[in-house]
Write a structure and sequence with these properties.
- The chain is α/β, with parallel strands linked by helices.
- It is globular.
- The longest helix has 27 residues, at about 330-355.
- It contains 16 helices and eight strands.
- α9 (about 180-190) packs across α10 and α13 (about 300-310) runs parallel beside α15 (about 330-355).
- The chain has helices at about 15-25, 40-45, 55-60, 80-95, 105-110, 115-135, 150-160, 165-175, 180-190, 215-225, 270-280, 285-295, 300-310, 315-325, 330-355, 360-365; strands at about 45-50, 65-70, 100-105, 140-145, 205-210, 235-240, 245, 250.
- Bound molecules: tryptophan.
Length: about 375
């Protein structure tokens, strides 16, 4: 049985290799080396696969226009998992991308019952402020709400309906509801509209997303291909692994459960408590045993957070890995390293978020 991916359920993925074969995702392989600026999400496997990423690399290399589009679901608080996509936006902007950020307020209204006003507030206070604080450049960003798109964008979200069938939707999404159908059509318009005339016409677009969004990407690419009259370039995608929750590498970080997540607004004490109490340890039960047998960094959440987010230096990371594995480094020491790193980052981030408040109206017109 193929592993099912449901973009509307909290998915936990056990086997990424399997997903790649079942859904036709390509390995990043040697493409990583072609990136003009090193990026640890790529080089350490947080981005585990892609579709047509070569098209984007060619645009970068030849200094041709390309765009990045991604969407955010305005519900809940901004956590480390969300930071991955935000950092990628900033990264691709540096490589020349025009950035389109969609607030999926229609989707969160339809599938989560969040009003447009509430969605707007969450999108700005939780997401946009953090994006700006993480370095998003207003000059190269279009931040928009699904409920307020242009006429051509809105029409696109309807016209895509003519390029699929009910049976196809059922086979891609499994359980269907009218709400899900509308949400996915709007999402196709999101992904394709950077290529509309009003946005400069057809061009490569990269969509960085969590792997749970894969069904949307696949069907949207097919729909793009079938809309011959628009001459769309089939959108590219890079897929990120889902950020592990505090309680284990195979669990998911989720806004609705604070015990699984580090929020970018957590204070020092909260971070310390969360890591000490909840961060799953790959260490041994007793100190003697740990010294003798060593720990397992591959399942240790603290190590994984250092690897994904906080230890940028490859040499230092390798040393931590080896020291933990040999038993030289204890779980308590590893946790303290992580706590210090997170709190240092959050302290600075807090200041940046204060500064960001002044920049919000550069991103939103009214
Ligand atoms: N469905 C996405 C989510 O659940 C949000 C989204 C809307 C999106 N439009 C998009 C993501 C376009 C990527 C591209 O988070």
């Amino acid at each position: 049985m193929a592993e099912k991916l449901d973009p509307w359920k909290s998915t936990e993925v056990k086997d990424y290799k399997r997903i790649m074969t079942d859904f036709g995702i390509d390995d990043m392989g040697k493409l990583v080396e072609q990136l003009p600026i090193k990026n640890n999400y790529f080089s350490r496997g947080t981005i585990f696969g892609h579709k047509d990423f070569k098209v984007i690399l060619d645009a970068i290399k030849n200094k041709k226009p390309f765009a990045l589009l991604t969407g955010l679901m305005p519900s809940g608080k901004f956590h480390l998992g969300h930071k991955i996509i935000a950092d990628l936006m900033v990264y691709f902007q540096k490589l020349g991308a025009d950035c389109y950020i969609c607030v999926a307020d229609i989707e969160s209204y339809l599938t989560r019952g969040i009003s447009l006003e509430e969605g707007r507030k969450i999108a700005i206070e939780e997401y946009l402020l953090n994006y700006i604080a993480l370095g998003l450049n207003p000059k190269k960003t279009k931040f928009y709400f699904q409920s307020e798109g242009s006429k051509d964008y809105t029409n696109l979200s309807r016209f895509v309906a003519g390029k699929t069938t009910f049976n196809e939707l059922k086979s891609v999404y499994g359980d269907l509801t009218p709400q899900k159908i509308v949400s996915s059509f709007v999402q196709f318009a999101d992904i394709l509209h950077p290529q509309l005339k009003e946005n400069g016409g057809p061009k490569p677009v990269v969509v960085p997303v969590g792997v749970d969004q894969l069904p949307h990407i696949n069907l949207c690419r097919d729909v793009a291909f079938r809309m011959k009259e628009n001459k769309f370039v089939m959108p590219s995608a890079v897929f990120t692994k889902l950020a592990p929750g505090l309680k284990g590498v195979e669990t998911k970080m989720s806004s609705s459960n604070p015990e699984t997540a580090i929020f970018l607004t957590d204070d020092e004490k909260t971070v310390e408590n969360k890591i000490k109490r909840y961060a799953f340890s790959g260490g041994q039960m007793s100190l003697e045993e740990h010294r003798k047998k060593g720990g397992n960094p591959d399942v240790d959440v603290s190590f994984q957070y250092l690897k994904i987010f906080f230890e940028h230096d490859d040499k230092k990371l390798e040393k931590i890995y080896n020291d933990y594995k040999s038993g030289k480094l204890l779980t308590s020491e590893l946790k303290q390293m992580l706590i210090d790193k997170i709190n240092k980052f959050l302290k600075e981030h807090k200041l940046n978020r204060e500064k960001a408040k002044k920049l919000v109206n550069k991103f939103i017109k009214n």
